[in-house]
Design goal:
Elements (H helix, E strand, L loop, with lengths): L10 H10 L1 H25 L4 H10 L4
């Protein structure tokens, strides 16, 4: 069902509307980046890494 049909938009219609705006696309990128960071943190914790190792890895990112 299309969003302009007068009926409730589907989640895909809402996502399509978000991607059309620049601000929406930026928010979507931030949400995806935060989700990936959370997954990486959960994987590191599940491998029983120490907090110091995790913090060191995060501070090293971006220092190519």
């Amino acid at each position: 069902m299309r969003a302009d049909s007068g009926l409730d938009p589907t989640p895909l219609d809402r996502l399509h509307g978000l991607l059309r705006s620049r601000r929406g696309a930026l928010w979507l990128r931030r949400i995806v980046a935060a989700a990936l960071l959370l997954v990486a943190l959960l994987l590191a914790v599940s491998e029983e890494r120490s907090v110091v190792e995790i913090a060191t890895a995060f501070t090293r990112t971006g220092q190519g």
